[in-house]
């Protein structure tokens, strides 16, 4: 297990404080997202907290980001046991810092049972992860088309390995594909794999809302933040094997963008669906404003 992956596993191993109350730490200073807590971290830790109070598997979660998290202090997660039924259970998790809620999430759990089976298959050919160059192997012309903040983001070491398809190529439609996986082997704990997918589901998704506008949520001309996030888990998977994140944005207006994602395993099985609305407010960089 790589150091970054071991640190991610440790990040998701919450400290129990009292019944239904847990404390989560923040990553080391060497990790990115240090100006505020990464939203995927809060999603994953909140899911872990909820999972600790129930014996069923999570199948859906709906969350709102209320305030930016402070990376300098731990996050306390309070779980409300809303309902325990024979087939389903519901939990509500509140993330707290400085005495205020910064995030709320409802999670539904379901006892495994047989049922009808279908899925929306991939409607386009996507190269395998082995055929997609890593960031360090991008052609020079593709690297030259990327703004420096975008290139810096993709070059950072992280616990999730990312391979965006066609990075640096012009976009004529608000959609793209990204292969991802944990950057090392994970323990055989299905709940941990669900939490790692929740963590990764907040990475790169909002960028689909700006692709056709010549802007980036990583640049200085867009003020960006996740506003809400929904995740549905359909089938078993491993987060340390390659997963394909098909992303699109059906709408952007009023300084908000809607992004959707379908997550497939290597065999083409749909394992998860994602939806997120985010703030994508155009701003004038300070250097331009002063000029």
UniProtKB/TrEMBL annotation:
Residues 28-110 form the Acyl-CoA thioesterase-like N-terminal HotDog domain. It comes from the Bacteria. Keywords: Hydrolase. The keyword Hydrolase applies. CDD domains: Thioesterase_II_repeat1, Thioesterase_II_repeat2. Pfam families: 4HBT_3, Acyl_CoA_thio. The keyword Hydrolase applies. Belongs to the C/M/P thioester hydrolase family. This is Acyl-CoA thioesterase II. It comes from Ancylobacter koreensis.
């Amino acid at each position: 297990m790589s150091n970054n992956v071991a640190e991610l596993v440790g990040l998701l191993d919450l400290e129990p404080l009292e019944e239904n109350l847990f404390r989560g730490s923040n990553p080391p200073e060497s990790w990115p997202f240090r100006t505020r807590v990464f939203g995927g971290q809060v999603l994953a830790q909140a899911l872990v907290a909820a999972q600790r109070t129930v014996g069923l598997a999570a199948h859906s979660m709906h969350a709102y980001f209320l305030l930016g998290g402070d990376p300098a202090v731990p996050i306390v997660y309070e779980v409300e046991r809303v309902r325990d039924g024979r087939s389903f259970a519901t939990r509500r998790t509140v993330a707290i810092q400085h005495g205020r809620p910064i995030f709320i999430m409802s999670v539904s759990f379901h006892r495994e049972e047989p049922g009808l089976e279908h899925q929306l298959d991939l409607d386009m050919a996507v190269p395998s992860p082995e055929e997609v160059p890593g960031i360090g192997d991008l052609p020079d012309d593709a690297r030259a088309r990327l703004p420096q903040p975008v290139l810096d983001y993709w070059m950072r070491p992280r616990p999730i390995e990312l391979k965006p398809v066609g990075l640096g190529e012009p976009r004529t439609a608000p959609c793209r594909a990204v292969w991802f996986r944990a950057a090392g082997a994970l323990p055989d704990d299905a709940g941990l794999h669900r939490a790692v997918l929740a963590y990764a589901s907040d990475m790169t998704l909002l960028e689909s809302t700006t692709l056709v506008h010549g802007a980036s949520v990583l640049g200085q001309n867009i003020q960006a933040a996740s506003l809400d996030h929904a995740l549905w888990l359909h089938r078993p998977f491993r987060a340390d094997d390659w997963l394909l994140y098909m992303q699109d944005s059906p709408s952007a207006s009023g300084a908000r963008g809607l992004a959707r994602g379908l997550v497939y395993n290597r065999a083409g099985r749909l394992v998860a669906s994602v939806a997120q609305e985010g703030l994508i407010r155009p701003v004038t960089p300070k250097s331009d404003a002063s000029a």
